[in-house]
Automatic annotation (TrEMBL):
Species this protein is from: Phyllostomus discolor
Membrane topology reported for the UniProt record: Single-pass type IV membrane protein
UniProtKB keywords: Coiled coil, Endoplasmic reticulum, ER-Golgi transport, Membrane, Transmembrane, Transmembrane helix, Transport
One GO CC term, this protein: endoplasmic reticulum membrane
Top-level taxon of the source organism: Eukaryota
Name recorded for this polypeptide: BCL2 interacting protein 1
Membrane-traversing stretches: 169-186
Length: 194
């Protein structure tokens, strides 16, 4: 029975070492991973799975240690289990750091997307302002040309009003001369002795 337990203990230790190395490799992959977010999430999930398996193997080793007949072997295995638990606690901290890193990366990517949207909206607003400015400048130029036309029209109307006044005065003088001539002719014909 003791030989079977020794085999189980060795197998369990080998699996713990194997999972430990796999976790370390995955954590290194997370550090080296440039993205995208999906790849980081996949690596993070793999780390969690390996941690679950590692915890299970440590618990199995602890159970095997409790089943040992010799107290010295039992204490040695329990000490080994405690060492594995301490190492796992440090790795859990690394896992939480990896998770935090993943969350920060996700947040930064979200911020980057929001900034990209804001830049796009700013570009659209800028384009709209440029178009509005162009329209206002065109309208201003049109108003300037209309203003010139209106000024010319005002000058022409003023000139025609002066000419109208001059024409009325000339017509009045011509009419007065005509009436004076008619009166002179009538006077000479009717009253030649005067």
């Amino acid at each position: 029975m003791a030989a079977t337990q020794d085999v189980h203990v060795r197998i369990c230790n080998q699996e713990i070492v194997k999972f430990d190395l796999e976790v370390k490799a995955l954590i290194q992959d997370i550090r080296d991973c440039p993205g995208p977010l999906g790849a980081l999430t996949e690596l993070n999930t793999s780390v969690k799975e390996k941690f679950r398996e590692l915890r299970h193997r440590i618990q199995e080793l602890e159970q095997l240690a409790k089943e040992q007949d010799k107290e010295s072997e039992k204490q040695a295995l329990l000490q080994e289990v405690e060492n594995h638990k301490k190492q796992m606690l440090r790795k859990t901290t690394k896992e939480s750091l990896a998770q935090t890193s993943s969350n920060i990366t996700e947040s930064l990517m979200g911020i980057s997307r929001m900034m990209s949207q804001q830049v796009q909206q700013s570009e659209e607003a800028m384009q709209s302002l440029v178009n509005s400015s162009r329209t206002i400048l065109d309208a201003n130029e049109e108003f300037k040309s209309m203003s010139g036309t209106i000024q010319l029209g005002r000058k022409l109307i003023t000139k025609y009003n002066r000419r109208e006044l001059t024409d009325k005065l000339l017509i009045f003088l011509a009419l007065a001369l005509f009436l004076a001539t008619v009166l002179y002719i009538i006077k000479k014909r009717l009253f030649p002795f005067l």
